[in-house]
Amino acid sequence: MRTSEPPPASSWATPPEFYLDENSVSRTIRRLLTGLGYRVHSPAELYGSRDQALGADDDDWLPKVGQRGWTVLATDFRIFERPHEYEAYLKAGVSVFLMPAESKIDERVELIAACLPSMCSAASQRGAGVWRLTTRGAEPYTAPAARKKRGRSRDT
């Protein structure tokens, strides 16, 4: 349970701009963040329309988001299991915050609100990183593709 309100964008010298991937886009999450003064972007904005954005490959949208310096809110843990998509993430240099895929919108709003201070702090570092949003806060997430990659490099 939250004891204080999430920080408004004006709390930060340079507040992050958030990109809601196609699996996490919702009016409720957008309203939460924009109501606090944050800029929020969607796949439709990135591609020109919702139809053009549907099904965009992660290795296509990640570099575009990275070039703009946006912070990603997502539910797709699978991107970090597939080595070619994990490589695209690393090249893009984005901060990604993952919400449980099976969570309901209200749960996602609560997670974002509770974790927003740590999300903004991490995103201000402007480097690649992945965190899971939990009721305990934003926790670093080690991608299976990264574990496999490290495992291979030790073996060779």
Automatic annotation (TrEMBL):
It comes from the Bacteria. Residues 16-99 form the VapC45 PIN like domain. This is VapC45 PIN like domain-containing protein. It comes from Nonomuraea ferruginea. The lineage of its organism: Bacteria, Bacillati, Actinomycetota, Actinomycetes, Streptosporangiales.
